[in-house]
């Protein structure tokens, strides 16, 4: 039986109040579909990159590694509703499959060996449940999270913490835990238009993140840390919305061409290879066609010829 708890501290209660206020602010925002879509694309990319970095993977927005590209696909599917609205062990395994695609032969499969965390002295500081109990533990985990009547933010924090402790997969548990939190926040109405970027907060406060994950069953520190991250990142998202100019031409673009234009705008003098790394699932011929269309409509300029050519946004 899962035996995790957290205390309703004064700080936690105050943070929950701030989250509710922020949610009302976001819900009351006027529709700015173009601006929000642009910021959502950037935010999801950053979430993917930061989540990979937390694990020590040297990903960047300019050159996202495969780990970050996989995460980006998973975040996009979460925020498009592609995983449905029912929390389950199948969902967790699907998220692991997405995160570890072409990285691990065990993508989506539970580990088949013992696992523990060791300190520098070689002493085990946390021993995960034995692998032969994982199906049972994960079924219980699913029921436990689904049965929580606490706030969505607390539930999302608890889901991430407990998954880390069960450690159901051989690799990628941290990435999947953060995807689970994002999924719960989004499906229960606390997605903050996809601008939360909790992964950025965690990457910047990584030492504290691992510190509050240390206790074996008391989640209080982690829940407070998680809620603090929600408040800070939701406020940062509002600032980005205020600062982002409206682009009158963007509604007439196909989504992929709008995204290509955004990439070139953020990274002037982008080479074709640089742009292609952001669209690895798109056939290079199709990408060249999109770039040609953007040039024809005077939205981008091509400087140079052949492989040395670069692209910049037109004035």
From TrEMBL:
<keyword id="KW-0067">ATP-binding</keyword>
<dbReference type="GO" id="GO:0005524">
    <property type="term" value="F:ATP binding"/>
</dbReference>
<feature type="binding site">
    <location>
        <begin position="123"/>
        <end position="126"/>
    </location>
    <ligand>
        <name>ATP</name>
    </ligand>
</feature>
<protein>
    <recommendedName>
        <fullName>Fido domain-containing protein</fullName>
    </recommendedName>
</protein>
<dbReference type="InterPro" id="IPR003812">
    <property type="entry name" value="Fido"/>
</dbReference>
<feature type="active site">
    <location>
        <position position="167"/>
    </location>
</feature>
<feature type="binding site">
    <location>
        <begin position="209"/>
        <end position="210"/>
    </location>
    <ligand>
        <name>ATP</name>
    </ligand>
</feature>
<dbReference type="InterPro" id="IPR040198">
    <property type="entry name" value="Fido_containing"/>
</dbReference>
<keyword id="KW-0547">Nucleotide-binding</keyword>
<dbReference type="InterPro" id="IPR036597">
    <property type="entry name" value="Fido-like_dom_sf"/>
</dbReference>
<dbReference type="Pfam" id="PF02661">
    <property type="entry name" value="Fic"/>
</dbReference>
<feature type="domain" description="Fido">
    <location>
        <begin position="87"/>
        <end position="228"/>
    </location>
</feature>
<feature type="binding site">
    <location>
        <begin position="171"/>
        <end position="178"/>
    </location>
    <ligand>
        <name>ATP</name>
    </ligand>
</feature>
């Amino acid at each position: 039986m899962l035996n995790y708890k957290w205390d309703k501290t004064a700080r936690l209660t105050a943070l929950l109040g701030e989250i509710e206020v922020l949610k009302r602010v976001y819900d009351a925002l006027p529709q700015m579909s173009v601006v929000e879509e642009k910021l959502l694309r950037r935010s999801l990319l950053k979430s993917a990159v930061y989540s990979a970095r937390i694990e020590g993977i040297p990903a960047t927005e300019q050159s996202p590694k495969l780990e970050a590209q996989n995460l980006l696909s998973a975040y996009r599917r979460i925020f498009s509703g592609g995983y449905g609205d029912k929390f389950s062990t199948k969902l967790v395994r699907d998220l692991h499959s997405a995160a570890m695609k072409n990285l691990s032969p065990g993508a989506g499969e539970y580990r088949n060996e013992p696992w523990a965390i060791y300190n520098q002295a070689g002493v085990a500081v946390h021993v995960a449940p034995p692998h032969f109990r994982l199906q049972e533990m994960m079924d219980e985990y699913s029921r436990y999270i689904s049965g929580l009547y606490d706030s969505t933010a607390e539930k999302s924090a608890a889901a991430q913490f407990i998954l880390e402790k069960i450690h159901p997969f051989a690799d990628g548990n941290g990435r999947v835990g953060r995807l689970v939190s994002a999924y719960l926040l989004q499906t229960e109405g606390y997605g903050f238009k996809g601008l939360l970027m909790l992964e950025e907060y965690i990457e910047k406060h990584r030492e504290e993140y691992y510190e509050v994950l240390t206790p074996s069953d008391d989640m209080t520190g982690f829940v407070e840390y998680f809620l603090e991250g929600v408040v800070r990142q939701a406020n940062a998202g509002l600032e980005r919305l205020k600062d982002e100019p409206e682009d009158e031409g963007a509604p007439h673009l196909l989504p992929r061409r709008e995204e290509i234009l955004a990439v070139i705008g953020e990274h002037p003098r982008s080479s074709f290879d640089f742009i292609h790394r952001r669209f690895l699932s798109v056939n290079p011929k199709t990408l060249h066609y999109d770039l040609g269309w953007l040039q024809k409509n005077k939205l981008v300029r091509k400087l140079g010829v052949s492989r040395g050519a670069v692209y910049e946004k037109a004035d």
